[in-house]
Protein backbone atom coordinates (compact mmCIF):
# COMPACT_ATOMS: atom_id res chain seq x y z
CA UNK A 1 0.00 0.00 0.00
CA UNK A 2 1.32 3.45 -0.93
CA UNK A 3 -0.03 6.93 -0.16
CA UNK A 4 0.89 10.25 -1.74
CA UNK A 5 0.01 13.46 0.11
CA UNK A 6 0.34 16.28 -2.36
CA UNK A 7 0.11 20.05 -2.55
CA UNK A 8 0.16 20.68 1.23
CA UNK A 9 0.70 24.32 2.15
CA UNK A 10 3.70 23.67 4.40
CA UNK A 11 5.55 20.79 2.79
CA UNK A 12 6.71 19.15 -0.39
CA UNK A 13 4.78 16.05 -1.44
CA UNK A 14 5.06 13.10 0.92
CA UNK A 15 5.17 9.58 -0.42
CA UNK A 16 4.47 6.71 1.97
CA UNK A 17 5.22 3.12 1.18
CA UNK A 18 4.34 0.39 3.68
CA UNK A 19 4.61 1.91 7.13
CA UNK A 20 7.38 4.42 6.43
CA UNK A 21 7.84 7.80 4.78
CA UNK A 22 9.69 6.77 1.67
CA UNK A 23 10.24 10.06 -0.10
CA UNK A 24 9.65 13.77 0.35
CA UNK A 25 9.77 15.80 -2.86
CA UNK A 26 8.09 15.96 -6.21
CA UNK A 27 9.52 12.88 -7.94
CA UNK A 28 6.68 10.50 -7.13
CA UNK A 29 3.43 11.30 -8.90
CA UNK A 30 1.35 8.16 -8.43
CA UNK A 31 0.29 5.97 -5.51
CA UNK A 32 -2.45 3.53 -4.50
CA UNK A 33 -4.05 6.44 -2.69
CA UNK A 34 -3.59 10.16 -3.34
CA UNK A 35 -4.59 12.73 -0.72
CA UNK A 36 -5.01 16.28 -1.99
CA UNK A 37 -3.79 18.56 0.82
CA UNK A 38 -4.47 21.89 -0.87
CA UNK A 39 -5.31 24.45 1.85
CA UNK A 40 -4.04 22.05 4.49
CA UNK A 41 -0.84 21.30 6.40
CA UNK A 42 0.76 17.89 6.72
CA UNK A 43 2.41 17.31 10.08
CA UNK A 44 3.72 14.51 12.27
CA UNK A 45 1.01 12.92 14.45
CA UNK A 46 0.87 13.71 18.15
CA UNK A 47 2.01 11.40 20.96
CA UNK A 48 -0.11 11.21 24.10
CA UNK A 49 2.45 9.86 26.57
CA UNK A 50 0.22 9.44 29.61
CA UNK A 51 -3.39 8.38 29.69
CA UNK A 52 -5.82 5.81 31.02
CA UNK A 53 -7.95 5.28 27.93
CA UNK A 54 -10.90 3.42 29.42
CA UNK A 55 -11.50 6.23 31.92
CA UNK A 56 -13.31 7.91 29.02
CA UNK A 57 -16.39 6.16 30.39
CA UNK A 58 -16.01 8.35 33.50
CA UNK A 59 -15.80 11.66 31.64
CA UNK A 60 -17.86 14.26 33.57
CA UNK A 61 -18.89 11.64 36.14
CA UNK A 62 -17.14 13.41 39.04
CA UNK A 63 -15.80 16.93 38.61
CA UNK A 64 -14.93 19.85 40.87
CA UNK A 65 -13.93 17.62 43.77
CA UNK A 66 -10.80 17.47 45.93
CA UNK A 67 -8.35 14.83 44.71
CA UNK A 68 -8.64 12.50 47.72
CA UNK A 69 -12.46 12.60 47.78
CA UNK A 70 -12.59 12.27 44.02
CA UNK A 71 -10.52 9.09 44.23
CA UNK A 72 -12.02 7.56 47.38
CA UNK A 73 -15.69 8.41 46.88
CA UNK A 74 -16.03 8.31 43.11
CA UNK A 75 -13.23 6.82 41.03
CA UNK A 76 -12.01 3.85 43.10
CA UNK A 77 -15.51 2.48 43.93
CA UNK A 78 -16.37 2.46 40.21
CA UNK A 79 -13.00 1.01 39.21
CA UNK A 80 -13.51 -1.85 41.69
CA UNK A 81 -16.46 -2.98 39.51
CA UNK A 82 -14.68 -2.52 36.20
CA UNK A 83 -15.08 -5.37 33.70
CA UNK A 84 -13.11 -6.27 30.62
CA UNK A 85 -16.05 -5.09 28.47
CA UNK A 86 -15.92 -1.65 30.15
CA UNK A 87 -12.23 -1.38 29.29
CA UNK A 88 -12.77 -2.56 25.74
CA UNK A 89 -15.57 -0.08 24.99
CA UNK A 90 -14.00 2.75 27.02
CA UNK A 91 -10.67 2.38 25.23
CA UNK A 92 -12.46 2.36 21.89
CA UNK A 93 -14.07 5.69 22.76
CA UNK A 94 -10.66 7.03 23.82
CA UNK A 95 -9.04 5.86 20.58
CA UNK A 96 -11.80 7.41 18.52
CA UNK A 97 -11.34 10.75 20.29
CA UNK A 98 -7.56 10.61 19.91
CA UNK A 99 -7.69 9.77 16.19
CA UNK A 100 -10.15 12.63 15.64
CA UNK A 101 -7.84 15.08 17.42
CA UNK A 102 -4.62 14.04 15.70
CA UNK A 103 -3.01 11.63 18.14
CA UNK A 104 -1.22 8.77 16.40
CA UNK A 105 0.30 6.99 19.41
CA UNK A 106 -0.64 6.81 23.09
CA UNK A 107 0.86 5.39 26.27
CA UNK A 108 -1.85 3.72 28.30
CA UNK A 109 -1.81 2.36 31.84
CA UNK A 110 -4.85 0.58 33.22
CA UNK A 111 -6.47 -2.80 33.90
CA UNK A 112 -7.80 -5.56 31.61
CA UNK A 113 -5.12 -4.48 29.14
CA UNK A 114 -5.70 -7.36 26.73
CA UNK A 115 -9.08 -5.74 26.04
CA UNK A 116 -7.58 -2.26 25.76
CA UNK A 117 -5.10 -3.65 23.23
CA UNK A 118 -7.91 -5.26 21.24
CA UNK A 119 -9.75 -1.91 21.10
CA UNK A 120 -6.70 0.08 19.93
CA UNK A 121 -5.86 -2.55 17.35
CA UNK A 122 -9.38 -2.48 15.90
CA UNK A 123 -9.18 1.28 15.42
CA UNK A 124 -5.66 1.10 13.99
CA UNK A 125 -4.06 3.38 16.57
CA UNK A 126 -0.47 2.80 17.75
CA UNK A 127 -0.02 2.28 21.49
CA UNK A 128 2.42 1.47 24.25
CA UNK A 129 0.38 -0.27 26.91
CA UNK A 130 1.05 -1.23 30.49
CA UNK A 131 -0.90 -3.10 33.09
CA UNK A 132 -1.21 -0.88 36.20
CA UNK A 133 0.87 -2.79 38.79
CA UNK A 134 -0.24 -2.07 42.39
CA UNK A 135 0.90 -4.42 45.19
CA UNK A 136 0.38 -2.23 48.30
CA UNK A 137 3.14 -4.11 50.17
CA UNK A 138 1.18 -7.36 50.04
CA UNK A 139 3.19 -10.40 48.91
CA UNK A 140 0.16 -12.32 47.57
CA UNK A 141 -1.08 -9.31 45.63
CA UNK A 142 2.44 -8.86 44.25
CA UNK A 143 2.45 -12.41 42.89
CA UNK A 144 -0.90 -11.78 41.18
CA UNK A 145 0.35 -8.51 39.68
CA UNK A 146 3.50 -10.19 38.37
CA UNK A 147 1.38 -12.90 36.79
CA UNK A 148 -1.01 -10.39 35.19
CA UNK A 149 1.87 -8.26 33.92
CA UNK A 150 3.61 -11.26 32.34
CA UNK A 151 0.38 -12.49 30.77
CA UNK A 152 -0.24 -9.11 29.19
CA UNK A 153 3.33 -8.75 27.91
CA UNK A 154 3.14 -12.20 26.32
CA UNK A 155 -0.31 -11.52 24.84
CA UNK A 156 0.92 -8.61 22.68
CA UNK A 157 4.24 -10.09 21.57
CA UNK A 158 4.60 -9.79 17.80
CA UNK A 159 1.78 -7.26 17.40
CA UNK A 160 2.50 -4.52 14.88
CA UNK A 161 0.85 -1.54 16.53
CA UNK A 162 1.08 -2.45 20.20
CA UNK A 163 4.15 -2.45 22.36
CA UNK A 164 3.98 -3.71 25.93
CA UNK A 165 5.52 -1.71 28.74
CA UNK A 166 5.50 -2.17 32.51
CA UNK A 167 3.23 -0.03 34.68
CA UNK A 168 4.31 0.20 38.34
CA UNK A 169 1.67 2.73 39.43
CA UNK A 170 3.78 4.91 41.77
CA UNK A 171 6.18 5.00 44.71
CA UNK A 172 3.25 4.88 47.14
CA UNK A 173 1.42 1.89 45.67
CA UNK A 174 4.33 -0.42 44.76
CA UNK A 175 6.70 -2.05 47.31
CA UNK A 176 10.52 -2.21 47.07
CA UNK A 177 10.18 -5.87 46.11
CA UNK A 178 7.67 -4.92 43.42
CA UNK A 179 10.04 -2.31 41.98
CA UNK A 180 12.93 -4.82 42.11
CA UNK A 181 10.92 -7.24 40.02
CA UNK A 182 9.94 -4.46 37.58
CA UNK A 183 13.60 -3.50 37.20
CA UNK A 184 14.73 -7.06 36.49
CA UNK A 185 11.89 -7.88 34.13
CA UNK A 186 12.26 -4.62 32.16
CA UNK A 187 15.96 -5.40 31.68
CA UNK A 188 15.31 -8.99 30.73
CA UNK A 189 12.62 -8.11 28.17
CA UNK A 190 13.92 -4.64 27.24
CA UNK A 191 10.59 -3.01 28.12
CA UNK A 192 9.76 0.60 28.90
CA UNK A 193 8.53 1.40 32.41
CA UNK A 194 5.62 3.83 32.78
CA UNK A 195 4.83 5.32 36.19
CA UNK A 196 3.43 8.34 38.07
CA UNK A 197 6.01 10.52 39.81
CA UNK A 198 5.71 13.49 42.13
CA UNK A 199 2.13 14.36 41.24
CA UNK A 200 1.15 15.75 44.62
CA UNK A 201 2.76 17.38 47.63
CA UNK A 202 1.23 14.63 49.79
CA UNK A 203 3.11 11.97 47.81
CA UNK A 204 6.39 13.82 48.43
CA UNK A 205 5.76 14.37 52.15
CA UNK A 206 4.76 10.76 52.76
CA UNK A 207 7.71 9.41 50.81
CA UNK A 208 10.11 11.52 52.89
CA UNK A 209 8.36 10.39 56.09
CA UNK A 210 8.47 6.68 55.16
CA UNK A 211 11.87 6.44 53.49
CA UNK A 212 13.75 9.63 54.33
CA UNK A 213 14.00 10.34 50.60
CA UNK A 214 12.08 12.31 48.02
CA UNK A 215 10.40 10.12 45.36
CA UNK A 216 13.07 10.70 42.70
CA UNK A 217 15.95 9.77 45.05
CA UNK A 218 13.99 6.79 46.23
CA UNK A 219 13.55 5.51 42.66
CA UNK A 220 17.18 6.35 41.90
CA UNK A 221 18.35 4.18 44.82
CA UNK A 222 16.14 1.35 43.54
CA UNK A 223 18.03 1.61 40.25
CA UNK A 224 15.01 2.26 38.03
CA UNK A 225 15.93 5.71 36.70
CA UNK A 226 17.17 5.19 33.15
CA UNK A 227 16.27 5.90 29.53
CA UNK A 228 13.58 3.21 29.66
CA UNK A 229 11.60 5.13 32.32
CA UNK A 230 8.64 7.33 31.38
CA UNK A 231 7.35 9.21 34.43
CA UNK A 232 4.15 11.25 34.43
CA UNK A 233 3.42 14.57 36.19
CA UNK A 234 6.55 15.78 38.03
CA UNK A 235 4.66 18.68 39.64
CA UNK A 236 6.75 18.82 42.79
CA UNK A 237 10.31 18.28 41.59
CA UNK A 238 13.26 20.11 43.12
CA UNK A 239 16.14 21.40 41.00
CA UNK A 240 18.28 18.52 42.26
CA UNK A 241 15.62 15.98 41.25
CA UNK A 242 15.49 17.49 37.75
CA UNK A 243 19.25 17.06 37.55
CA UNK A 244 19.00 13.42 38.66
CA UNK A 245 16.28 12.68 36.09
CA UNK A 246 18.32 14.33 33.33
CA UNK A 247 21.58 12.57 34.10
CA UNK A 248 19.76 9.23 34.01
CA UNK A 249 18.01 9.84 30.68
CA UNK A 250 14.46 9.70 32.06
CA UNK A 251 11.49 11.00 30.01
CA UNK A 252 8.86 13.08 31.79
CA UNK A 253 5.25 13.37 30.62
CA UNK A 254 3.80 16.81 31.39
CA UNK A 255 0.02 16.75 32.02
CA UNK A 256 -0.96 20.38 32.70
CA UNK A 257 -4.76 20.06 32.35
CA UNK A 258 -5.12 17.16 34.74
CA UNK A 259 -2.72 18.77 37.22
CA UNK A 260 -4.62 22.07 37.20
CA UNK A 261 -8.03 20.42 37.32
CA UNK A 262 -7.09 18.32 40.34
CA UNK A 263 -5.30 21.34 41.84
CA UNK A 264 -1.95 19.61 42.27
CA UNK A 265 -0.57 23.05 43.09
CA UNK A 266 2.99 22.43 42.00
CA UNK A 267 3.99 23.10 38.40
CA UNK A 268 6.38 20.89 36.49
CA UNK A 269 9.59 22.98 36.34
CA UNK A 270 10.14 22.97 32.59
CA UNK A 271 13.21 25.29 32.49
CA UNK A 272 15.16 23.14 34.97
CA UNK A 273 14.18 19.89 33.25
CA UNK A 274 15.17 21.38 29.92
CA UNK A 275 18.48 22.65 31.30
CA UNK A 276 19.40 19.20 32.62
CA UNK A 277 18.43 17.41 29.41
CA UNK A 278 15.25 15.63 30.51
CA UNK A 279 13.13 14.54 27.56
CA UNK A 280 9.86 16.34 28.33
CA UNK A 281 6.77 15.17 26.42
CA UNK A 282 3.01 15.70 26.78
CA UNK A 283 0.08 13.67 28.08
CA UNK A 284 -3.59 14.26 28.79
CA UNK A 285 -4.00 11.78 31.67
CA UNK A 286 -7.41 10.06 31.75
CA UNK A 287 -10.64 11.72 30.63
CA UNK A 288 -11.94 11.66 34.21
CA UNK A 289 -9.42 14.37 35.12
CA UNK A 290 -8.98 16.44 31.95
CA UNK A 291 -11.81 15.98 30.58
CA UNK A 292 -10.82 15.38 26.97
CA UNK A 293 -7.91 13.71 25.19
CA UNK A 294 -7.21 16.61 22.84
CA UNK A 295 -3.45 17.23 22.69
CA UNK A 296 -3.97 20.50 20.81
CA UNK A 297 -5.64 21.89 23.92
CA UNK A 298 -2.97 20.30 26.09
CA UNK A 299 -0.25 22.12 24.12
CA UNK A 300 -1.88 25.47 24.81
CA UNK A 301 -2.25 24.81 28.53
CA UNK A 302 1.30 23.45 28.65
CA UNK A 303 2.75 26.73 27.49
CA UNK A 304 0.35 29.03 29.34
CA UNK A 305 0.88 27.35 32.70
CA UNK A 306 4.67 27.74 32.44
CA UNK A 307 4.45 31.36 31.34
CA UNK A 308 2.05 32.37 34.07
CA UNK A 309 3.83 30.44 36.79
CA UNK A 310 7.22 31.94 35.95
CA UNK A 311 6.03 35.48 35.11
CA UNK A 312 7.82 35.02 31.81
CA UNK A 313 5.95 35.07 28.50
CA UNK A 314 9.00 33.80 26.61
CA UNK A 315 9.03 30.36 28.29
CA UNK A 316 8.01 27.33 26.20
CA UNK A 317 7.31 29.04 22.85
CA UNK A 318 4.94 27.46 20.32
CA UNK A 319 7.47 25.55 18.27
CA UNK A 320 9.02 24.00 21.40
CA UNK A 321 5.60 22.89 22.63
CA UNK A 322 4.92 21.33 19.26
CA UNK A 323 8.13 19.34 19.61
CA UNK A 324 7.15 18.15 23.09
CA UNK A 325 3.91 16.79 21.64
CA UNK A 326 5.52 15.11 18.63
CA UNK A 327 9.19 14.08 18.47
CA UNK A 328 9.79 14.10 22.24
CA UNK A 329 6.75 11.90 22.76
CA UNK A 330 7.86 9.36 20.17
CA UNK A 331 11.36 9.43 21.64
CA UNK A 332 9.97 8.71 25.12
CA UNK A 333 8.17 5.70 23.67
CA UNK A 334 11.30 4.55 21.84
CA UNK A 335 9.70 4.91 18.41
CA UNK A 336 11.14 6.41 15.22
CA UNK A 337 8.32 8.85 14.66
CA UNK A 338 7.20 12.37 15.40
CA UNK A 339 9.06 14.05 12.53
CA UNK A 340 8.41 14.21 8.82
CA UNK A 341 11.59 12.82 7.36
CA UNK A 342 12.37 10.07 4.92
CA UNK A 343 12.75 6.69 6.59
CA UNK A 344 10.63 7.56 9.63
CA UNK A 345 7.33 5.99 10.66
CA UNK A 346 4.35 7.08 8.57
CA UNK A 347 2.32 8.41 11.53
CA UNK A 348 1.02 11.77 10.37
CA UNK A 349 -1.90 14.12 10.24
CA UNK A 350 -3.41 16.52 7.75
CA UNK A 351 -4.67 19.72 9.36
CA UNK A 352 -7.25 21.99 7.77
CA UNK A 353 -5.94 25.55 7.54
CA UNK A 354 -9.20 26.92 6.14
CA UNK A 355 -10.98 27.34 9.47
CA UNK A 356 -11.68 30.60 11.33
CA UNK A 357 -9.25 29.67 14.08
CA UNK A 358 -6.29 29.43 11.71
CA UNK A 359 -7.13 32.55 9.71
CA UNK A 360 -5.27 34.64 8.58
CA UNK A 361 -2.36 32.27 9.30
CA UNK A 362 0.65 34.45 10.16
CA UNK A 363 2.42 31.61 11.92
CA UNK A 364 1.63 27.90 11.58
CA UNK A 365 3.05 26.79 14.96
CA UNK A 366 1.35 29.63 16.83
CA UNK A 367 -1.95 28.65 15.26
CA UNK A 368 -1.43 24.98 16.04
CA UNK A 369 -0.53 25.59 19.69
CA UNK A 370 -2.55 28.65 20.70
CA UNK A 371 -5.52 28.85 18.39
CA UNK A 372 -6.95 25.68 16.87
CA UNK A 373 -8.15 22.57 18.68
CA UNK A 374 -8.28 18.91 17.69
CA UNK A 375 -11.25 19.41 15.38
CA UNK A 376 -8.89 21.06 12.87
CA UNK A 377 -7.54 17.59 12.04
CA UNK A 378 -8.89 16.46 8.69
CA UNK A 379 -7.11 13.13 8.23
CA UNK A 380 -5.00 10.82 10.40
CA UNK A 381 -2.54 8.23 9.14
CA UNK A 382 -1.03 5.60 11.43
CA UNK A 383 1.63 3.13 10.36
CA UNK A 384 1.00 3.97 6.71
CA UNK A 385 -2.77 3.43 6.93
CA UNK A 386 -5.50 6.07 6.78
CA UNK A 387 -7.54 5.75 10.00
CA UNK A 388 -9.51 8.98 9.49
CA UNK A 389 -10.25 10.77 6.27
CA UNK A 390 -12.28 14.01 5.95
CA UNK A 391 -13.04 13.69 9.69
CA UNK A 392 -14.74 10.32 9.27
CA UNK A 393 -13.68 7.24 11.23
CA UNK A 394 -15.25 3.90 10.36
CA UNK A 395 -17.89 2.74 12.86
CA UNK A 396 -17.84 5.89 14.98
CA UNK A 397 -21.61 6.06 15.64
CA UNK A 398 -21.56 2.52 17.02
CA UNK A 399 -18.58 3.29 19.26
CA UNK A 400 -20.37 6.30 20.78
CA UNK A 401 -23.64 4.44 21.27
CA UNK A 402 -21.99 1.45 22.94
CA UNK A 403 -19.78 3.64 25.16
CA UNK A 404 -22.81 5.65 26.30
CA UNK A 405 -24.74 2.52 27.26
CA UNK A 406 -21.76 0.87 28.94
CA UNK A 407 -20.93 4.00 30.98
CA UNK A 408 -24.49 4.20 32.26
CA UNK A 409 -24.39 0.57 33.25
CA UNK A 410 -20.98 0.97 34.95
CA UNK A 411 -21.93 3.84 37.25
CA UNK A 412 -25.26 2.22 38.22
CA UNK A 413 -23.82 -1.24 38.81
ZN1 LIG B 1 -2.31 8.97 35.43
Short summary:
By secondary structure, the protein is of the alpha/beta class.
Report on this model:
- The chain is of the alpha/beta class.
- It has one domain (1-413): TIM Barrel, CATH 3.20.20.
- The protein contains 15 helices and 16 strands.
- The strands form 4 sheets. A 4-stranded mixed β-sheet has the order 3-2-1-4, with no helix packed on it.
- Zinc ion (ZN) is lined by residues 50, 52, 196, 232, 285.
Name the CATH class.
Answer: Alpha Beta
What ions, cofactors and ligands are bound? zinc ion
Instruction: Provide mean pLDDT, rounded.
Output: 97
Radius of gyration: 21 Å
Structural class: alpha/beta
CATH architecture: Alpha-Beta Barrel
Shape: globular
Roughly how much helix do the residues carry, as a percent range? Answer: 40-55%
CATH superfamily: Metal-dependent hydrolases
Report the span from N to C terminus.
46 Å
| CATH fold call | TIM Barrel
Reported for the largest beta sheet, the result is: 4 strands, mixed
Uncertain runs: none
Strand order of the largest sheet: 3-2-1-4
Taken as a percent bin, the fraction of beta residues is 15-25%
**Number of E-state strands:** 16
Q: What count of helical segments does DSSP give?
A: 15
List the helices and strands and how they pair.
Blueprint: E1 2-6, E2 14-17, E3 20-24, E4 33-36, E5 40-44, E6 46-51, H1 67-79, H2 84-100, E7 103-110, H3 113-123, E8 126-133, H4 139-155, E9 162-168, H5 176-189, E10 193-197, H6 201-211, H7 215-222, E11 229-233, H8 239-247, E12 251-254, H9 256-261, H10 270-275, E13 279-282, H11 295-310, H12 318-325, H13 327-332, E14 348-352, H14 364-371, E15 377-382, E16 385-388, H15 396-412
Parallel strand pairs: 1-4, 6-7, 7-8, 8-9, 10-11, 11-12, 12-13
Antiparallel strand pairs: 1-2, 2-3, 5-14, 14-15, 15-16
Helix pairs in contact: 2-3, 2-15, 11-12, 11-14, 12-14
The chain binds zinc ion (ZN).
Zinc ion binds next to loops.
Amino acid sequence: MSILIKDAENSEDIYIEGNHIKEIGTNVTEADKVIDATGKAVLPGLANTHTHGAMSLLRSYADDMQLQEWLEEKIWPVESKLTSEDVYLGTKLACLEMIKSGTTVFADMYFHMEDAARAAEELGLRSVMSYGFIDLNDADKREQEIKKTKEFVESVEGKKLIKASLGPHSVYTVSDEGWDWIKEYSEEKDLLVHTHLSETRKENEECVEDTGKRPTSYLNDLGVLNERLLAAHGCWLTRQECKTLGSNGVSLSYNPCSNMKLASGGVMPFPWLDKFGVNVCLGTDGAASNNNLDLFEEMKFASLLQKNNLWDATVLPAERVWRLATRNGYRALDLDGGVLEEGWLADLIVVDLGLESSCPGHDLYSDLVYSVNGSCVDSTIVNGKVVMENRKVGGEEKILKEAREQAKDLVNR
